[in-house]
Design brief:
Radius of gyration: 20 Å
CATH architecture of the largest domain: 2-Layer Sandwich
Largest sheet: 8 strands, mixed
Structural class: alpha/beta
Shape: globular
Number of domains: 2
Number of helices: 12
Strand content: 15-25%
Strand order of the largest sheet: 13-12-11-7-10-9-8-14
């Protein structure tokens, strides 16, 4: 293992950049912020002042030319992720990119090709995988303690008013990639997929109920998995009581999580089936207290860089999630089930989440 203090630059200094800055500064022995980059240089300088960052740049090209950066955190609007990540890969610099990693399945495959030609790698921000509750759930499932997975519920029911969509790129397929299916619920169903594994088939619907968007503001999906489990997924931006809920029913127990934008151990509950009280003991035994969030994922990324392993969440892992997003849109807009692998490269919903266009 080779441990070193990683020099990190944040590219895009808008709202989500603060979460990344907090994560880096929470690990002072392992990482340091060396640069902030934004097309609005004044905003970059204000961000640098706030977080004691020594250098600012108006674009990634100038940052890479200056050198001295080990890892780039991409916090820019989704439409810029692929060109910026590709530029960093060409320079041999690792990337941690915010969700969604790409606007489409075809873009993700193109980025995978760029990664394969580089000495560097791209990791995708799906921070809910890394809280101690999710880690414990995956371990107990893998060890057979929970028995066979049967059914899951995955609800991201949030509220965003009309003013939220006054930012020009929000609520568009061209820049944001989609509505709550792509930009909001993706965190919860990525966590679902990290636990239940590869999906097999999806039947979905989408609607624009209330918001002034090009995209949906609600979607619902029924999903089957290769392991035989089934799940329902709801993504909404029109729900006044906001919550994020996941429920996993196994043969031996029900495991539930309710939170909003991040969870801790008390947000999880475990209900054993009759005769399986040992599940509760297995859940609580030496359970670490690691909240989900950017710090938890950055810790895992730095661990991987130190050992020379692929940094989580790899592009290959994220493909399962992005393909499900594309399939939800394809099923909703074509009114038919979509199987994994059906959206081949160059097909309408692989090229663009909205395909030829939303029905409205």
């Amino acid at each position: 293992m080779t441990e070193s203090k990683r020099r990190i630059a944040i590219v895009g200094t808008g709202g989500i950049a603060k979460s990344h800055a907090r994560a880096v500064t929470a690990l002072p022995d392992r990482a340091e912020l060396v640069a902030g980059v934004d097309v609005d240089l004044d905003r970059a300088k204000a961000f640098a002042d706030e977080w004691n960052i020594p250098s600012t740049y108006p674009n990634l090209t100038e940052l890479l030319a200056a050198g001295g950066v080990d890892l780039i955190h991409l916090c820019t609007p989704p439409s810029s992720h692929v060109p910026l990540a590709t530029e960093a890969l060409a320079a041999g610099v690792d990337v941690l990119t915010e969700k969604p990693p790409t606007l489409s399945l075809d873009e993700l495959d193109a980025l995978l090709e760029a990664e394969s030609a580089s000495s560097a790698q791209v990791a995708c921000v799906f921070q809910h995988r890394f809280g101690s509750g999710a880690v414990r759930l995956r371990r107990l499932a893998a060890d057979g303690v929970l028995g066979r997975p049967l059914v899951a519920l995955c609800n991201t029911v949030w509220f965003r008013d009309d003013a939220y969509f006054s930012v020009p790129w929000r609520g568009t397929f061209e820049v944001e990639g989609g509505g709550p299916t792509m930009g909001h619920g993706i965190h919860q169903y990525d966590l679902l997929l990290s636990i239940y594994g590869p999906w097999q088939k999806v039947t979905a619907l989408a609607a624009r109920q209330a918001r002034p968007t090009q995209t949906e503001d609600v979607s619902l999906a029924m999903v089957t998995f290769e392991n035989g489990a089934v799940a329902s997924i709801v993504n909404s931006l029109v729900s006044p009581r906001q919550t994020s809920q996941l429920r996993f029913d196994y043969e031996n127990a029900t495991v539930e999580l309710e939170h909003l934008y991040g969870y801790q151990n008390p947000d999880w509950t475990v209900t054993p089936a009759d005769g399986h009280s040992a599940v509760s003991d297995a859940w609580t035994a030496d359970l670490p207290d690691v909240p989900s969030g950017h710090t938890a994922q950055l810790t895992a990324v730095l661990d991987a860089l130190d050992t020379g392993d692929p940094a989580p969440v790899t592009l290959a892992e994220a493909r399962n999630t992005v393909e499900l997003a594309a399939a939800i849109y394809a099923s909703a807009f074509t009114d038919k089930p979509i199987h994994r692998g059906e959206l081949t490269r160059g097909s309408a919903y692989a090229e663009r989440m909205g395909g030829p266009g939303a029905p409205w």
